[in-house]
Amino acid sequence: MNRVKSPLEAAASLTELWSPRVIAELDDSYVKVAKLKGTLAWHSHDDEDELFMVLKGSLRIEFESGHVKLQEGDLHVIPKGVRHNPVADEECLVMLVERKSTLHTGKVRTSKTRDISEQLLEFEVSNQQSSEGRK
């Protein structure tokens, strides 16, 4: 039933940048992992907070009033309604916790925006591989 998963391994296995993948569900939230490099887009989430945790590398999250710099093991919660822009100068692996209603880039659409159907694509495959590899 409960499977042990490694967010770091799941994020490292991703081949597409800025394309989060759901690795678990928790009540009304998804736990996601992503591989980042470069800039995503200025956006906000009107009704949801967003948690970023750096698994490997470093991440700068820009705000209209400044920025935060996250190193490996650091996490930061972005409050709902706050415009932000994640930037990874070098490749960075992150874990995200977001409500299921959270849109990837809020109301902003770019070529990097991923719908939840795309973020769930590897969910079943990841679950199956995790369970087989950890039996």
Descriptive keywords:
16% helix, Jelly Rolls, 135 residues, alpha+beta, single chain
Task: Please outline what is shown here.
With 135 residues, this protein is α+β, with helices and mostly antiparallel strands. The protein has three helices and seven strands.
Outline the structure in words:
There is one protein chain. This protein has 135 residues and is α+β, with helices and mostly antiparallel strands. The chain has a single domain, classed as Jelly Rolls (Sandwich), CATH 2.60.120.10. 16% of the residues lie in helices and 40% in strands. It has helices at 7-12, 116-119, 123-133, and strands at residues 21-26, 29-39, 50-56, 59-63, 66-70, 75-78, 84-99. Strands 1, 2, 3, 4, 5, 6 and 7 form a 7-stranded antiparallel beta sheet that branches. The longest helix has 11 residues, at 123-133. Residues 123-132 have low confidence and may be disordered.
Mean pLDDT metric: 83
Helix-strand string: HEEEEEEEHH
The oligomeric state of the chains shown is: single chain
Strand coverage percent? 35-45%
CATH class: Mainly Beta
Unreliable stretches (pLDDT < 50, length at least 5) are: 123-132
CATH topology: Jelly Rolls
CATH superfamily: Jelly Rolls
Work out the count of structural domains: 1
Q: In percent, how helical is the residue content?
A: 10-25%
Q: In angstroms, what is the radius of gyration?
A: 14 Å
Question: What is the end-to-end distance?
Answer: 12 Å
What's the total number of strands?
7
Describe how the helices and strands are arranged.
Layout: H1 7-12, E1 21-26, E2 29-39, E3 50-56, E4 59-63, E5 66-70, E6 75-78, E7 84-99, H2 116-119, H3 123-133
Antiparallel strand pairs: 1-2, 2-7, 3-6, 3-7, 4-5, 4-7
